[in-house]
Amino acid sequence: MTQTNRCIVADIGGTNGRFGIATFHEGQVKPDIDQVIVFPCREYDSLSQMLGAYIEKLGSSVPREAKLAIAGPTTEKKGRLTNLGWEVDADQIARTHGLEAVKFVNDFGALARACPFLEEGVDFVTLKNGEADPAAPISVMGPGTGFGVALLVPNGHGGYHTVSTEGGFMAFAPGSRLEHDLTEHLRTDLGYVSVESFLCGEGIARIYRFLVDYGGGGDRDLSPAEITKLAAEGGAPACTRAVQLFLSIVGSTAGDIALVHGARGGVFLGGGILPKIADMVGPSDLLRRFVAKGAQSAYVETIPVHLITAEYAALVGAAVA
Amino acid sequence: MTQTNRCIVADIGGTNGRFGIATFHEGQVKPDIDQVIVFPCREYDSLSQMLGAYIEKLGSSVPREAKLAIAGPTTEKKGRLTNLGWEVDADQIARTHGLEAVKFVNDFGALARACPFLEEGVDFVTLKNGEADPAAPISVMGPGTGFGVALLVPNGHGGYHTVSTEGGFMAFAPGSRLEHDLTEHLRTDLGYVSVESFLCGEGIARIYRFLVDYGGGGDRDLSPAEITKLAAEGGAPACTRAVQLFLSIVGSTAGDIALVHGARGGVFLGGGILPKIADMVGPSDLLRRFVAKGAQSAYVETIPVHLITAEYAALVGAAVA
Questions:
Q1: Alpha carbon distance A13, B12 (integer Å)
Q2: Which residue from B161, B172, B259 is facing A169, i.e. has the nearest CB?
Q3: What domains are there in chain B, each with its CATH number?
Q4: What's the rounded mean pLDDT across residues A105-132?
């Protein structure tokens, strides 16, 4: 194994930065990821500082390259972590840490790039079977600190073009009276209500507070993590209802995005939140809402839907970017 | 000019079939389109019959190939015209008319393929300036008998991959109290309300009838063509209001689709309806709604928006398919 076959990879969201080492072995398309360490973003002032902390933990044998997936708009050399307000410069980070090359990629772009390399049962579970058309696009999306949306378009030579989008900011289309009331309630605060208004950690808290205020009480001040934890454990009806409504909105939105992408190649759901509530997906309305698309229900019914469970998936994508 | 440089092209929607001859001249990337004839679909029982009528009008010098853009899901050899219920078979049509090759392409896929060849001021007008990123996708969409949506993704070698989608069936997100009331009114009849429920000829009639019923009277039984004609002439307030609301919904939907496509390469609006009401676009809310996307308004503000005015645009796209 030579030095050039290893690189530092990272996936920096709004909450955590996950760092690891990707190693490409001969005759193997999917890189191995190891030495994974997660750093809470709030404990650092910059991406460079987080990377420095990781390099310090590595000790010796530090790879000479880094490929960093960041939650925000980015080019290879300059980017911005939207929720943290961090402006980042690849060449400056490389100089600071004595690296030969540093490259950025959008976090959902990285997750999308990983999808063709992921293994069923190991890295993802299939929520809904279908007939994936290998010549058609694949949609990749998921809630985390925001709602990321990306698209893979087959290039006709066995690979894909990756398209990063801002699909999380599409207007939200309520699918029930409850969703309408919730939307109008949020509109007062937010002005514009996008799918991301609901489909992120803070979105779960918004749904939960609305249900508490209008549905019969409960502790208003739970964090998104507490709500999903209590919902998964059972015994906290308002938390369970909030997560169920959240999953309905995931399904409806995923169906809309699949239609707009022509994603007959499949839909991959990822991000930080869904794996934690994976057991609640089955009994939820997610799949029913995914296919409830009127005259085109038959079209979305052919589309397989997968849930990415591997925590290092975006690191694989950053490595192959 | 050799025979192989000419082909029959057509764009068959739900209402009309537009046929022409595409000629590729040496040193010219955009084919010339001439001998255009429009046939009303309702006067024919099949696509083959329409093509026969066109070939008969041509008389001598009939090209040996045909490339037919059809409004519906299709492969190169088999397709379905959704609104007419016509199943079509390319090889059978070729045999019937003694052609060497017949090929289908989706009508919005064809319109999308045409976009890189269209000329500003000749084939399209720019509704809104922006900074088109040549490395980013281009969204192509428009209302006609249905609401077509396609996507061009740069292939990195100066060309594009074309993606046909069913984006017209995404759920509609009301952006005002009036749009909410209209949506709930339609939901009673349609069950599921998509953007196409409004963004097509029948959609204009639906908006108009709602305004007549709930807004103060008028002749309920106008056709979509009559409504747009009266609106363009002025003097029929309910028609004008219906078209204004229609254009607002075009703008809001185009903004959502641009976000979901990551269409920083631009948005092209086409289809049969918009060129007829082009003069009403300026005073409408179309562009205001296009950019009203909350935290990502700055993103959509950079995207240029064009209106395709060339009636033969999809024929150019069929020719280059």
A1: 47
A2: B259
A3: 6-112+313-320 (3.30.420.40), 130-303 (3.40.367.20)
A4: 95
